[in-house]
Amino acid sequence: MDETNGETAIRVLVADDEAMMRAGIRAILTSVPGFEVVGEAADGREAVALVAELAPDVALIDVQMPGTDGLAATETITAEHPGTAVVVLTTFSEDTYIARALSGGAAGFVLKSGDPHQLVAGLRAVVAGGAYLSPEVARRVSHELDGGRLTRAAAAREKVETLSGRERDVLALLGEGCSNDQVARRLHIAPGTAKVHVRSILTRLDLENRVQAAVLAYEAGLAHRY
């Protein structure tokens, strides 16, 4: 992050093959204090190269781009440049890509047609170490991961019941996109204790990452924000 007017600016790379979409996102982010768009890419290959060159805090990446698509770019960035978080831009017609983006290490998902406030909130959440899914995407992810069966919610609630009360509190905050430090502040516990709880939740529930934890919190009815 860079210092801008005494504040820490979140450095963002925007990757989308549509110039108008890139311009729109740039306009949104430059109108919000604390953000700096450090680069733009028109395809996944260019996005990966710019991440290596610029080391942004977060890369906002479209799913469908010519050549190297956003999914392949996400996998490469998260594997080779772990200091850059990835937020995936998606549309309702791209539900089938969500599971791969999730397994590829994406820390957030926002809709292209969504509220700009969700975009800003998502970028802030993942840079802080949390995970973020816009409300619409959270519902879509839930269906994508289990075929949309009605039993998904019941299964999620059953899994959550295996956690302690404190762990359920932590899981609910993960569902809101909170980082470990934010969890600690909200629950008035030490950051190290919050980290231990998060690790325990992921292990006990056989979850790969915080995004899956956020999805589970949504499915179990814990994440009220979604």
Automatic annotation (TrEMBL):
Record carries keyword Phosphoprotein: yes
Q: Tell me if Transcription regulation is a UniProt keyword of this record.
A: yes
Q: Which domain of life is it from?
A: Bacteria
**Which protein, by its recorded name, is this?**
Response regulator transcription factor
Modification 4-aspartylphosphate occurs at: 62
- A single Pfam family, by name? GerE
Q: What keywords tag this UniProt record?
A: DNA-binding, Phosphoprotein, Transcription, Transcription regulation
Q: Which residues form the HTH luxR-type domain?
A: 156-221
Q: Which PROSITE patterns match?
A: HTH_LUXR_2, RESPONSE_REGULATORY
* InterPro entries assigned to the protein according to its UniProt record, in alphabetical order: CheY-like_superfamily, NreC/VraR/RcsB-like_REC, Sig_transdc_resp-reg_C-effctor, Sig_transdc_resp-reg_receiver, Tscrpt_reg_LuxR_C, WalR-like
Matching SUPFAM superfamilies:
C-terminal effector domain of the bipartite response regulators, CheY-like
The source organism is Nocardiopsis coralli
Record-annotated Response regulatory domain positions? 11-127
